[in-house]
Amino acid sequence: MGLLSDPNRRKALTGLLTRLNTPICIVCYLAGIVWFMGLAFEPFTLRTYMSENAMGSTMVEERFSSGERALSLAKEFDAHKRQARGMPVEWLVKAMQSRGLEVFTQSFSRKLPFPDENKERYMVRGTNVYGILRAPRAPRTEALVITAPCSPGNTNNQAVALLLALAQYFRNQIYWAKDIIFLVNEHDLIGTQAWLEGYHHTNITGMEYSPLQGRAGSIQAALSLELSSDVITSLDLVLEGLNGQLPNLDLANLFYAFCQKLGVLCTIQGKLQRNDWDTAEGYTHAAQTMMLMVLKQACGRSWGDHGLFLRYHIEAASVRGINSFRHYKTDATTIGRLLEGMVRKLNNLLERLHQSYFFYLLPSLSRFVSIGYYMPAFGLLAVILLLRVSFPGLCHCFSVSLQPSSPGVLTVLTPVVISHLTGVALYLLPVHLQEMAVEHFPVSETEAVVLTAIAIYTAGLALPHNTQRLLSGEGTEQGWKVLKLTALLYLAVLLGCTALINFSLGFILAVTLVPITASITPHMPKALYAVVMVLLSPAFTILYCVFIYQELIEAPVSVSEGWMLFLSVISQGILDHALYGSLVYPLLALFIYPCWLMFWNILFWN
Amino acid sequence: MAAHRCGLSLVFILIFSSLACHSSCDSLENANEDTEEKQSVSDTPREVNSDGSIAAEDLNERRGRSTDAELDRRDGTRTSEALTPAAAARDEFQEELVIRPLHSGDIYASFQFRTLWDTDFLQEGQKVSHYRLFPKSLGQVLSKFSVRELHISFTQGFWRTMQWGQPFIPSPPGAELWVWFHDTVSDVDGNWKELTNVLSGIFCASLNFIDLTNTVQPSASFKPLGLGNATDHRFLRYATLPREIVCTENLTPWKKLLPCGSKAGLAVLLKSEKLFHSSFHSQAVHIRPVCQDEQCTSKAWELRQTLNVVFDLYTAGQGKKEWSLFKMFSRTLTEACPLATSSKVYVDITDNPEGELFELSPATPLLSQAVVLGDRRTYSVFDLTRAETFGQLRSLNLLLRWKGDGGEMLRPLLHAERYVAGFGLQTGEIHTVIYNNHPYRAFPVLLMDSVPWYLQLYIHTLTVTSKSRDNKPSYIHYQPAKDRHRPHLLEMLIQLPPHSMTEVTVQFERALLKWTEYTPDPNHGFYVGSSVVSALVPSMVAMNTNFTQDQPLFSSFVPVKEESSYFVRVYTEPLLVNLPTPDFSMPYNVICLTCTVVAVGYGSFYNLLTRTFQVDEPSLPLAKRLANLIRRIRGVPLLT
């Protein structure tokens, strides 16, 4: 600080910062990207370890042996499912009752804001069936949840059957300290959402459901099970939840530890772990795994039934059985044992899972990057925005804009307000105008919503950059500087807050938004920069993410397929917001897009 | 017939004079015992044999009385004031086990041991030093702390009303203690504190964690169960410890209070390895003053030790609906406690009049009927004081074999449950749901909630709704909490409409504790004790309001005041609530450290940004300053 209180040295420092502003910014940007890519390099990451004492050293001997019975149950369940053309509620209730559980049902209904074309549903009506295994001599204060979605077609029968077989086995054991809830939910996430809202007696998404009759105290952890074949080659762990929330890392560690113990192949993001980190392929593999996690987390949707539990501070993960063409197979008994082991260790918990990390990235199941390692990558990008604020021209106008009599305030306020109104329109109109759109154009409701959104987005580009001239005539030199200053600070705050909650989203937005926003002035070649700005706008970021994601899951798509995917991603985003309260769509529509429009305004200032 | 009875009673005198020494050497007795005896004779055609003759154990009772009466007559003109300490020889001990096969296939075993102590040490100037059957450790506690009534229970597990029906004596999970002090006590809180610490030592439990922050004085929910109608709740203290874990170390001191210990009688069945291999375990001690006889001319102290246990069909019964004493307790019965005046095993066979539901062996001809919890129940009785009970093998191993299967949920007339609604760590809402399943009768219930201070209740958000209509409680007693001093106490009298669900909700905010106030495992959560629903539930059959000695113990615990209803207390489940908890680990330290660094950095930056810097001008030499002084007087421009 002595350096800064000396006026001469201070002058030298600011001089340096202003003179070398652009090179420093470029270096920061590149360093941020390189840092981020370096996170996947194994020597820079930490090995995962079990932090929770109660789950660490306690020995569990797995004795579950009725895998075969589970498979025959799966056939029975399938037959009843076909007969009932949906969830065989009565059969499930009987099956659970005969296994000594307290069984309850919950019916729910939900009208989607517009038809979901991916899953072909609009009016959703369903029933959840759940059975509670009451722990002996426990006062109903704590519970664990095992859930299996009852999916249409013949998928997931094995999961439900294994759930029932586990229930039967668990019921005969004396060692339970927490009640165990076995939940079979219909309509995947909607059912889970209805059940969770019913259990916690909240209503945040306008779901209609019947109140729950049986409860078991506060839920400590949840596992969601998805199995569609009798034998599997590997088990995939899904962690990404709603709004990019992740369960405690110990849950992943637990899964990994039992996979190791029982010799089950385990994957994350569908990718097996490789040991050759020092080769280029090994690094690429780890980087791809991590990029997949970043992309999945950034989109803020729940990638399995577990994702909705996280809002209620319930640590949850989905375990998904994958049957590919490898010759190494695992049978249902082993999966049952794996789950038994996990549940028993969770049963041993004295406290909620809290010892390990909640913010992490996983380049593989045995390696993790903690928040302390990945945050600098974002910090290096965010600091560019602050450095640009101290840019000489801008610094000067800072003091000007503080004067109340400055003519700049009004000229700045107008574009800010208009951009935000455009944002509000983008948030509200697509869903509300769908009926009108369907009447006038030959499109379906879903298409109407997506196309309205795109139309408003595009209209926003044309609309605001003319407005400030109506109020104050010619745009002044000072005016755009004040606007840029405001916009830069606004963007820095927005991205900073986003990255704290959902690092991946904040980072991806920073990568695309920072370079153009940092360099934009009205004195640039307008046509060229307009194209560049549009190509780096939030909508195009989503489009790139779609292509990268398809590339990473080894299912590359053509441009037209990519476009269709892009449209469905937008509709899914709006649906996720309406159904489960995902915040990515409102964040983009109400804050990021208006902020970007402010920079667009600067480009067309005079 | 009369001659036959006389003969029987003679036989019994011979048998029991060796066992029950107290009744034969009991020479001091009240004169009016005589009249009472006649009444009780007329009152007792309750235990009916299959062929209609009076049951033998009934005679047994009367045998004791008639000898007493004879002795009294011989004694002549004794008055009640002659009740000296020597009269403590009237102490009495009874033991009883009730086995109820439950609807769900589980089995419920309820032990009751009752010790009567014929003394009144609360009288002025009386010092009791002679103990026979009554445990001295408890007797001393009673007299030292002027306790009028004491109820303590330790429970592991939650009573599942929907599957098991009502228990004989309800208790909340964890430990519960409520005490009525004598109204001569001046420092009730001091006595209470000492008492909890002493009991903590006696029962090997953490009762010493009871302090003023979890003690309440309910105004209406807990009335004395014994003699005397004290209503001033200043002398009442009630506390629960929902977190208390009950295990062997609590069972052993409890067993030691029994006159026979666990050496003889029913107590041989109390082996901890089986008792704790169950779904529910509850043990309790209830001490209260009772009438010695119907006219209530003399008082006695009653100590009831109860132990309730439910064995699970799947974990303890291997899924087979077949229960025996040996399977349940890994012991069989071979004798009664020699000190006991009565020692009986009751098996509830109400649902099984023709033996189509289950099979009970060995069969017993003795049947008994009792009105329990609003229902007339029939019991098979095994009298352990009779040698025939044990048969050839000299051991009694009751065997119950189910034929049908139940498993459907029950609909008890009164049922309550509770949960926390909402998510996040700032606010929440406590929901208490009370069900009245009576088809056409409305009845009032008293709801008592004691909530720790760290859940700050918003009492203005209290709502009571039944059938989606507002239900205004006719009586509300609310005592707000004081941070770190006392909990919230909320008592309400709510009328439950027939066949309805009543929901009581109240919102709360979670307090941020000081960092030393967190428990060692703060992320486990904090417990809120069960709420208590007390009610007089309309009875299906006429309740028996008469006080008779030979009622089975389990049906005579709560005094019945009117015929049309019976008293039920229902405890809801305790709550586990998470409070905002700092991460007491290394990241927490890192955060603290970072915050400090940021604060220091911020301070200096702020300083730099707001301070204006000026170059310091060197001060003038002394000569120039003097010259300037003169120049100022002259009005000439100053030198610099």
From TrEMBL, chain A:
InterPro entries: Gaa1. It is a multi-pass membrane protein. It is found in: Endoplasmic reticulum membrane. Its main location: endoplasmic reticulum. One of its GO terms (cellular component) is GPI-anchor transamidase complex. The chain crosses the membrane at residues 20-41, 371-389, 409-429, 449-467, 487-516, 528-550, 587-605. This is GPI-anchor transamidase component GPAA1. It comes from Cyprinus carpio.
TrEMBL record, chain B:
Residues 32-86 are annotated as: Disordered. The keyword Signal applies. Keywords: Signal. Residues 1-25 form the signal peptide. GO terms for biological process: attachment of GPI anchor to protein. GO terms for cellular component: GPI-anchor transamidase complex. It comes from the Eukaryota. Residues 37-49, 59-78 have a biased composition (Basic and acidic residues). This is GPI transamidase component PIG-T-like. It comes from Cyprinus carpio.
